[in-house]
Amino acid sequence: MNSTRTPLYKVGQIKKHFPVLGGILRRTKGYVKALDGVDLEIFRGETIAVIGESGCGKTTLGRMLALLDKPTGGELSFDFGQGLQDVTTLRGADQMRFRKKVQMIFQDPYTSFNPRQRVGAAMDEVLRVHGVKDEAERTVRIMEACEMVNIRPEYLQRYPHEFSGGQRQRLAIARCLATKPELIIADEIVSALDVSIQAQIVNLLLKIQRETGLSFIFVTHDVAVARYVGHRVAVMYLGNVVEILPADSLPEAAEHPYTIALLSAVPSMNPTAKEQRVVLQGEVPSPIDMPSGCAFSTRCPAVMDICRTERPVLKISNISKGDHQVACHLNKGAK
Ligand SMILES: Nc1ncnc2c1ncn2[C@@H]1O[C@H](COP(=O)(O)OP(=O)(O)O)[C@@H](O)[C@H]1O
Ligand SMILES: [Mg+2]
Description:
This protein is of the alpha/beta class. The chain has one domain (9-326): P-loop containing nucleotide triphosphate hydrolases (Rossmann fold). The protein has helices at 58-65, 92-101, 119-129, 135-148, 165-178, 195-212, 223-229, 257-264, 305-309, and strands spanning 9-22, 27-42, 47-51, 73-79, 84-86, 102-105, 183-187, 215-219, 232-237, 240-246, 315-316, 325-326. An 8-stranded mixed β-sheet has the order 6-7-8-3-9-10-12-11, sandwiched between helices. It has a 4-stranded antiparallel β-sheet with strand order 2-1-4-5, with helices on one face. A hairpin with a 2-residue loop joins β9 (232-237) and β10 (240-246). Bound molecules: adenosine-5'-diphosphate and magnesium ion. Residues 58-59, 188 line the site of magnesium ion.
């Protein structure tokens, strides 16, 4: 996006290293580097689709952004309206204010609804926790949110198990919307649903995005869905964002050899020639035993000497310029 605008949320070199314990004394043997220096800027009203294979750190990134877990290092700053402000040190009421603005939805919302509580009561409780003291206002907000996701008001008297997976996801979205957030982080929220229901939910999110101007981070392993919902697509590999570019420039504009390989494995992204398909060699390295230099260097078809020793950082693409960043030594002369 336009670099002269200030972002809603800025992520600088975020790291999350989980200790690996071993032996009978349960000493720390090493660290799983789930996130290893992620940079990202999220602008108002944009949807960033985050893609990457299982285990590359997508959920961990979402959890860090929602402050559900503490990063090992790095900066998180959010604009509450008066410019970017560090949020990693927020406590008490300030942290609650942040939690209202940035909400996360998970793959299985069943686990986030209390099975013994009617869904309407659950939504009411969330609003009370967020300090909406007036009952009439809570009711209005819940009704509005349900209307936005096409849930009939009488359904609010039901229990979570009485809904289908798709309906539960719509309720989870409504519960978020009722608090009037500015950023929703949706983590694989359609992955467990039937394809037709997936399309319904994805189109619903697009509609909400258009109507409310909210920002979304939409985590998915489905490249086609990412391209459809995202304004920009961020590609992750082993705890890093390796490329971020406008969704409508895909697949042609992709530069990082990993993105190219990932896209070429999707038939709809590669309609032309079968022989263009890039088959990656070897396994994804373990995040406990990360290669030095570029994390992709062990599998990269274009690997150079420098890639094995020096980690490339995310820089503006030297080819497409503007709104396209790539972390690759092939991106020569970039700033
Ligand atoms: N609580 C945890 N403790 C230890 N390792 C974890 C924990 N959570 C995630 N990981 C590891 O961090 C890496 C990234 O995981 P995750 O963020 O769930 O990836 P994704 O959502 O992209 O599949 C994986 O190697 C995973 O095993
Ligand atoms: Mg995940």
